[in-house]
Specification:
globular; binds ligand FO1; Rossmann fold; alpha/beta; about 325 residues
């Protein structure tokens, strides 16, 4: 069984860890031997202190590879900040994005490889040789795409900042007038991405940010079309529980595109390709013919709960597949 997932950072990585746990402990050999391909958002990427940083790729790689800082969901476990302290002593800017000593090694290896002409896919494959995440981890594109955000200034002008500045320094507390993945329109899907969507038996959308993570992946030309056309059932998990994002600030992102923070509204963003949607019991299910909705607890409160959630998403996908083999 070929499972393909579109994922952002923290929430997506946690869900994928649960999916792998569910698969590897399944009594069904088709699930136990399933191969998982992850298509990751890369528009959160940023160059700081001369290093190219890919937060969503790293969150998936570290989380599935056993090296993640469990509380933060990003960066390395048991981290130290010797280099960051030295950078601060030099007044090296920006200081609002914390780079841990171990994490810096990842950015050094990636930056060197890219500088030697490797693609982001090649650099990611090289880093995964160490972490062995148990999935094929693909960037959505090897081209440069960066999410930039337009902010309203007090004097009525607008200022454009990198997504990370809005997200980390401003905590998305300043309303975003516009969120734009710069470069997406001319980006090409990375090698293997379209095939992974076309040849999947199941496509899963973890509870990642629907605007700046999954929404951005969908803006790479060809990817949304591949999701519409794939014969695989596409099942997603609502990132909204009881009308609020579980982690992160998806509500600030949804507000920026004029979409309410509801499970139904998020499903609407995937309307042209979504076949199944898992919704929390506290939320109203979207009503759309052809969309199969299941209501269940969605909180990834423990590894077991996360594995059960991933199993429920897979169950729904396979149920849909059986119902409509022509799909
Ligand atoms: N998030 C923060 O809130 N503060 C940080 O200082 C920070 C540093 C950081 C370093 C490496 C990395 O891979 C991620 C980091 N993040 C930090 C998280 C990052 O902003 C998010 O993981 C994604 O970009 C949003 O999904």
């Amino acid at each position: 069984m070929q499972i393909t997932a579109l994922a952002g950072g923290v929430g997506g990585a946690r869900f994928l860890r649960g999916l792998l746990a569910h698969l590897r402990s399944s009594g069904d050999p088709a699930r136990r031997e399933a191969q998982v391909t992850v298509i990751s958002n890369t528009a959160d990427d940023i160059t700081l202190h001369g290093l190219r940083i890919s937060p969503d790729l790293d969150s998936v790689m570290y989380t599935l590879g056993g090296g993640i800082d469990e509380d933060r969901g990003w960066g390395r476990s048991s981290e130290t900040s010797g280099v960051a302290d030295e950078l601060a002593a030099y007044g090296a800017q920006p200081s609002w994005f914390t780079l841990g000593d171990k994490d810096i090694a990842t950015h050094l290896v990636r930056t060197r490889l890219l500088g030697e002409g490797a693609t982001l896919s090649e650099a990611t494959a090289r880093l995964c040789e160490r972490w062995r995440p148990g999935v094929r981890l693909l960037p959505m594109t090897d081209d440069r795409v960066e999410t930039h955000v337009d902010l309203a200034e007090a004097d009525g002008s607008t200022r454009r900042v990198h997504f990370q500045e809005w997200w980390v320094r401003l905590h998305a507390a300043v309303p975003a007038l516009r969120i734009e993945p710069v470069g997406a329109a001319t980006a090409r899907p990375a090698p293997g991405v379209l095939e992974a969507l076309r040849e999947a038996d199941v496509v899963v959308l973890p509870p990642s940010n629907p605007v700046v993570s999954i929404g951005t992946i969908l803006q790479v030309p060809g990817i949304r079309e591949a999701l519409v056309r794939t014969s695989a059932p596409v099942v997603g998990v609502s990132p909204v529980i009881a009308g609020a994002p579980v982690r992160g600030m998806a509500d600030a992102c949804l507000a920026a595109i004029g979409v309410p923070t509801t499970a139904a509204a998020v499903a609407g963003l995937y309307d042209d390709f979504l076949d199944g949607w898992l919704v929390a019991e506290e939320d109203e299910p979207p009503v759309r013919s052809g969309l199969e909705v299941r209501r269940r607890p969605l909180l990834m409160s423990s590894p077991a709960a996360t594995a059960d959630l991933a199993g429920a998403a897979l169950d729904l996908a396979l149920e849909l597949d059986r119902k409509d083999p022509a799909a």
